[in-house]
Write a structure and sequence with these properties.
This protein has seven helices and twelve strands. By secondary structure, the protein is an alpha+beta fold. The protein folds into three domains: 2-96, no CATH class; 100-211, 2-Layer Sandwich (Tetrahydropterin Synthase, Chain A); 213-279, no CATH class. The strands form three sheets. Strands 6-5-8-3-11 form a five-stranded antiparallel sheet. It has a four-stranded mixed sheet with strand order 1-2-4-7, with no helix packed on it. It has a three-stranded antiparallel sheet with strand order 9-10-12.
Amino acid sequence: MAIARQVITSLQADGTDLLGTKALAVKIADESIVSGSLLTVESNHFCVLKGRGAVLNVYETGQYALTTPDKPLLGSIAQGFFGGSSPWVYEVIYVNRSKLLIRSEGVATSEEMAEMYYQVDYYIHVDTKEAALELITHMPFNGHWIDIKEVADYASPAIEQSINQVVQVTKMEEINEHIQEVRELVKAHLADFLKTYGITLNDLKILIMPKDERMRELISLQAIGLSAMEAVRYYLALKMAEKGLVSAPNAAAGVPFNVGGPATGFYPLGAETGLSEKK
């Protein structure tokens, strides 16, 4: 924030925006904010002016000369008595109205009590002046900021509850079949929750997968048409092949490995493999 010649703006000296893409609101309290100060509001911001805890005005895009109660009540005598600064501290709160991306992550449990990792990416924005007031009224400031991490922390319980509502009664391998149902449920609950804070939910993407890497690989093998037992054998064979073990094909086929087997391969010949020696 820059205050030069009593000009208040959210642009910094290098031209960058004070809010950027990570902050939803920033609060500026300065004794030099008095009647006649020039307030600049960028096209992607709202601005709320507060004095002694009360909201004095909410501004949209533009440039405004502030009128605060100090000047008509106290005038130049009070200004001189207080050393040229306002006896009351005024707060200028800039609210970001751009769309911001938030990510929430967590763990849910399937019907078999298997841990499932989920990742939810969603876009939010503050749509109106009334919504900006709702935000600063209901969402506390972390110092001088409300950032997207704070919004994610507040929204996490609502997201987790919605996901568990479906995941906890669904078998692990069937969860992706219900992903659209989970998405719609999370979107509805999250939109209602964020509305309390004046935040509009725009869009949402959700990803759910087994937390354990081995389970993810086994399910991927089953997805190409292998049975559960075949998936286990092929998973074992792949791990053995990574270590350079020559018996990996036997693990995939589910047959024993003979150290003195035929030179043409590692599979023993016989009915159990479906192969027979050529006469």
